[in-house]
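Tokenise the fold.
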Amino acid sequence: MSKLSSLERRSALTLACVISLRLFGLFLIMPVFSLYAQHMPDATPLLIGLALGVYGLGQVLLQIPLGLLSDRIGRKPAITLGLLVFAAGGLVAACSHSLLGIVVGRALQGMGAVAGAGTALAADLTSEENRGKVMGIIGVSIGVAFLLALILGPPLEAIDGLSGLFAATSILALAALMLLWLIVPAPARRKAPAAAALGSVLAMLRDGRMLVLNGSVFFLHMLLTASFVGLPLLLADRLHLPVNRHWELYLPVMVIAAFVMGACLHRMREVAQSLRIVAICVVATGLGLLGFGLSGDHLALLGVTAAVFFSAFNLLEAALPSLVSRLAPASLRGAAMGAYSTSQFLGAFVGGAVGGIALGRLGTEGVFLCAAALTLVWLPLVLAGRRRIAGDASMDADAVAGAARGA
């Protein structure tokens, strides 16, 4: 197995900090929002779900344009623009006194759509054989940010309320911006060649392999966001665990998930191995969600199913973008990662809406059971895509062998 070069190591660690700082700001809201939003004067289950997931709508509108922009003007300027918009959205939400105002602020935060350009920058700065490891490092950093947000969100909310949490998201975005320009290396190639025209972009987006991967990240974040409509309520109402003690569940769960990630990183070197992990993780995600819905008042059972769910989530967060970066044309990598991130955040938006509707009609347990049922749609997509990608790889290998014999 090749080792990371000093440039790749520096790129991976600093980009992980940039990406995780921004996501830490988003994650801070998740463990407490549904608990406190239900006490706002204009609160309804649907509006709570929309406020949690609406940032995905802005991401959907701007991920591909910002990905293309990063191919043209460079990754760093495009990411800078997105981080500034994200910070402005946090300030709007912090100054709002109604749930509708928070929805507007969260939507504006979502318009800071830098995930595609950021992941493309990571791919630009690493070799193909090490890209899975770099994405794994970034995935671990996201997991750590997620863990810290779950632990720190409730006490920070107690200090300065939801407004303080939203203000913190803006401060973290500006800190990420400083890291981007002071520490993250600049890639050698900043622009796509002239061949990266609209027709090429559309052809890449219609590629069956990209559709499978984009569909997978859509389902992943739809289910994650839906689960966080119900999970804080499950812990507080069913298990009677005060919000300032929710970390007692999250801490061991995320430590286990980090160990699982570390143990599986070396299996992501090849496309076939990564696809096998993706299929296994889809099944694990469904089982975890089913466990949430059936755990009742058994905290130990909830802990086991949470470990399964978040281990699968962390592995998918590393495997899926690595596959996209390896299968997309190099000249269209920013656009490909933009499309991937568009699907990711569309999933978050739909998940918030689905979770809110399910909460209002089926109750807390119904949120998880509805989400678990949706994995039965996701799994056939992954299995069919795995066969498609493996078949394409076999055809490419035959073509290379034929060209070698002809030479």
